[in-house]
Design a protein that fits this description.
Elements: E1 4-10, E2 14-20, E3 26-33, E4 45-46, H1 48-65, E5 73-80, E6 85-89, E7 99-100, H2 108-116, H3 119-127, H4 136-146, H5 150-155, E8 159-163, H6 164-172, E9 182-184, H7 185-188, E10 194-195, E11 200-201, H8 203-209, E12 218-220, E13 229-230, E14 242-248, H9 249-256, E15 265-269, E16 273-280, E17 291-296, E18 304-311, H10 315-325, H11 333-338, E19 348-350, E20 368-370, H12 378-404, E21 411-414, H13 421-431, E22 435-438, H14 443-456, H15 462-466, E23 471-475, H16 481-496
Parallel strand pairs: 1-5, 5-14, 9-12, 15-21, 21-22
Antiparallel strand pairs: 1-2, 2-3, 4-7, 6-8, 10-11, 13-14, 15-16, 16-18, 17-18, 19-20, 22-23
Helix pairs in contact: 9-14, 10-12, 12-13
Length: 505
């Protein structure tokens, strides 16, 4: 009898494989980082071949360490860094170019041109997204226009596109030997190419980017009883396992946090921050800089939508302290260093390395540290970095409340940064609401497992999943209202000073 469900979590900085039992408890995991390729300022790339080899390695290592075989798995789910764009040859299996990562800003002129001539309004109406460097459509266009031979190969039906979920699913199910070219509704909703109401690729949107329809994967539900495909005996699981779940990472975390009711929200702290608010089967169009996106679709049920606030740089700002400034040796040391001082010493750090995402959508912004005096130390900078994570979250929460009318009673949090207790206390202080972390903080992988398990009856329904959720810790606000208001006023002033730093034509 199959006793577990597996999940491949292909993230921005690493890939992990996790295994869960019927109680949603972690049975095993293994994780490996991959290289961040930075060819020039604003460009961020990954090697798709490296991502696939890391996927094979983490899957096999986790399974062997847990003393399991493919026969023990009821199903497999996949979750992934969204928007990151891979174009490869379906005959050879070789990528034409590195994966262009969601943080990459090379398509800023493409995005600006869409807004100048009115096409941007059509994209907002149909896809629920603003024209921005963040999304996949412009990245596909850039590859078609700048990599020799790709457009001709696309017109012949040889060059195909996918976010990293499609790339992994294709390889998992055979690659050049019959691999399936599919994605799910959540990933498709991040391309600027799918109509949110029909859940289908839209010819008018495709024409804006001059993308041949034949490049695109088939769109399927996030939890699919008909399965995306089956792993091969020679593949990472060394046996046949049905692949029945696929969601973009932030939607997967929403499922993992069991935010199945209208008005429930979660915030994931990873490379960036991503807050999603479940709006049910109703499309809520933002007027405050948020995204309207598909939250999930379970089998033949109607799709559930969400409002999302996407923040480009949060956890990666801590990595910047570690890798570029080298004032800490590990990410965990950011908490120890920041705790050496009682406050930020008057400095504010706006980490707009890739411009600013929600709610500002300013690709002309760049990072800034303001308020410096000779008094300040590396400890103040570390604290300002943690505060930046929290202030950006407040920006999104304010916009979400204006769009939806929902005032959060508590914020559910997950992701790697939630291990930083000081950061979570600052988050409660800056928001003025309690912050709750679950026992299983890696809810992205858990959500992918839930989607896969629901499809095969491993878990009977979403009500049963709620019973699996347990709180690990809760942080209560300690700042006074006056302290909170003054800090946020200075943060907003600091953000304004980052605008217009680069020219976007």
């Amino acid at each position: 009898m199959a006793d577990v469900v597996g999940a491949i979590d292909q993230g921005t900085t690493s890939t992990r494989f996790m295994i869960f039992d019927r109680g949603g408890n972690e049975v095993g995991r293994y994780q490996l980082e991959h290289e961040q390729i930075l060819p020039r300022a604003g460009w961020v790339e990954h090697n798709p071949i490296e991502i696939w080899t890391r996927t094979v390695a983490v899957t096999r290592t986790a399974i062997h360490a847990a003393d399991l075989t493919a026969a023990d798995f009821a199903a497999l789910g996949v979750t992934n860094q969204r928007e990151t764009t891979v174009v490869w040859n379906r005959r050879t299996g070789r990528p034409y170019y590195n994966a262009i990562v969601w943080q990459d800003t090379r398509t800023d002129r493409i995005a600006a041109a869409l807004d100048r001539d009115g096409r941007g309004d059509v994209i907002r109406r149909k896809a629920g997204l603003p024209p921005a460097t963040y999304f996949s459509g412009g990245k596909i266009q850039w590859i078609l226009e700048n990599v020799d031979g790709v457009r001709q190969a696309a017109e012949r039906g040889e060059a195909i596109f996918g976010n990293t979920d499609s790339w992994l699913l294709w390889n998992l199910t055979g690659g050049v030997n019959g691999g399936v070219h599919v994605t799910d509704v959540t990933n498709a909703s991040r391309t600027m190419l799918m109509d949110l109401e029909s859940l289908a690729w839209d010819d008018e949107l495709l024409s804006f980017f001059d993308i041949p329809r034949a490049m695109l994967p088939e769109i399927r539900p996030s939890s699919d009883p008909g399965r995306y495909g089956t792993t091969l005996p020679a593949g990472p699981l060394e046996g046949e396992v049905a692949i029945t779940g696929d969601l973009g990472d932030q939607q997967a975390a929403t499922v993992g946090q069991v935010c199945f009711a209208v008005g429930e929200a979660k915030n994931t702290y990873g490379t960036g921050n991503f807050m999603l608010l479940n709006t049910g089967t109703k499309l809520v169009r933002s007027t405050n800089g948020l995204l309207t996106t598909v939250c999930y679709q379970l089998g033949a049920d109607a799709p559930v939508y969400a409002l999302e606030g996407s923040i480009a740089v949060t956890g990666s700002a801590v990595q910047w302290l570690r890798d570029q400034l080298r004032i800490i040796r590990t990410a965990a040391e950011s908490e120890t260093l920041a705790a050496q001082v009682p406050d930020n010493g008057g400095i504010y750090f706006v980490p707009a390395f890739s411009g600013l995402f929600a709610p500002y959508w300013r690709s002309d912004a760049r990072g800034a540290i303001v308020g410096l005096s000779r008094f300040n130390t590396n400890a103040h900078l570390a604290r300002a970095t943690l505060e930046a994570i929290c202030y950006q979250t407040r920006d999104v929460m304010e916009a979400m409340q204006q769009d939806s009318g929902v005032t959060l009673d508590v914020l559910k949090v997950d992701g790697g940064v939630t291990a930083n207790d000081l950061c979570m206390q600052l988050q409660a202080d800056i928001l003025g609401v309690p912050v709750s972390r679950p026992v299983v903080a890696e809810t992205t992988a858990l959500g992918a497992a839930y989607a896969a398990g629901l499809a095969v009856g491993f878990w009977p329904d979403t009500d049963g999943l709620r019973a699996n959720w347990n709180e690990s810790r809760r942080w209560q606000p300690t700042w006074t209202p006056e302290q909170r208001a003054e800090g946020y006023r200075k943060w907003k002033d600091a953000v304004q000073r980052t605008f217009g730093w680069v020219n976007v034509g």
